[in-house]
């Protein structure tokens, strides 16, 4: 499916036709133009021919954790992954990819070892959400909707800034998915130029920073991007964002055994976050092993968490969704590539 083709086909038509087609794709979630009853047959036939709605994919169910992962095949043969997490409180979150592979090359991340394929187009980002919108409609009650989006799949969103923002506008559009800006989060490895631009966006979006280490030496070892945008620069941009927007910022911190999970790291992190942490939240993520490192022991995660909490920092632990289907960053695409 390619949304750009939709625009092309309807170019000469009155604008209400575009609205009808839009509604059919994003609200009625049709999978074939024949399901539509509002557009004239001649237009439907052209759309069938030039803008087929099929999304090629393989879905992997995870019964244990209500996580479903889909591997989507793009027109040029590249593959991307996208994950649906169904939470007990009724939220349904889709984790979307922004690039094929990722140029940042973090050593702990399976996507990073794939290298950069290319940026995804707006249509390719949005169709991941469309895929799961259709999936929910088919497999659950009609009113089961996608409520949240996180840009935490493959790729660095701020290295594909314009397409990511355009996709967000579409997902937020009242006439399309209608997902509230406050329910959309973008995670970055610390692309400072992107954080600065993001701070100026009119929508009330959420920002997450993949920190993973509290000092430059360790962070540069784990995340090569730190050599370009060191911790100080990242924190200065975050501070600016905080003052400009007054919105909460989430720091993601992977817990890797013996690497970044010691008491001294927790203390360094407290110092790094500074005096006023009222708008900061640290999310401790148990590392999903992809080869090189081991996840931290539960007792060490607890200890780390307690040290932060005693310093008055808000801490959450991310529940490891879908480990049985390798739903962590990049794992499945990598496996498939190797086969
Ligand atoms: N590139 C962006 C967004 C995608 S990664 C970023 O790095 O922020 C989404 C999150 O998954 C990041 O915090 C990333 O560090 C984390 N991640 C990478 N590999 C992981 C693994 N093996 N287990 C758990 N989380 C991982
Ligand atoms: Fe890219 Fe994020 Fe993986 Fe780092 S953690 S390689 S930035 S996807």
* Main sheet overview: 10 strands, mixed
**What are the bound molecules?**
S-adenosyl-L-homocysteine, iron/sulfur cluster
Query: Could you name the CATH homologous superfamily of the largest domain?
Result: Aldolase class I
Strand content bin: 15-25%
Q: What does this molecule look like?
A:
- With 339 residues, the protein is α/β, with parallel strands linked by helices.
- The protein folds into two domains: 1-54, DNA polymerase, domain 1, CATH 1.10.150; 55-338, Aldolase class I (TIM Barrel, Alpha-Beta Barrel).
- Helices cover 37% and strands 19% of the residues.
- It contains twelve helices and twelve strands.
- The protein has a ten-stranded mixed sheet with strand order 1-2-3-4-7-8-9-10-11-12, covered by helices on one side. A two-stranded antiparallel ribbon has the order 5-6.
- The longest helix is centred in the middle third of the chain and has 18 residues, at 122-139.
- The radius of gyration is 21 Å and the shape is elongated.
- The site of S-adenosyl-L-homocysteine has 17 residues, from strand 8 and strand 10.
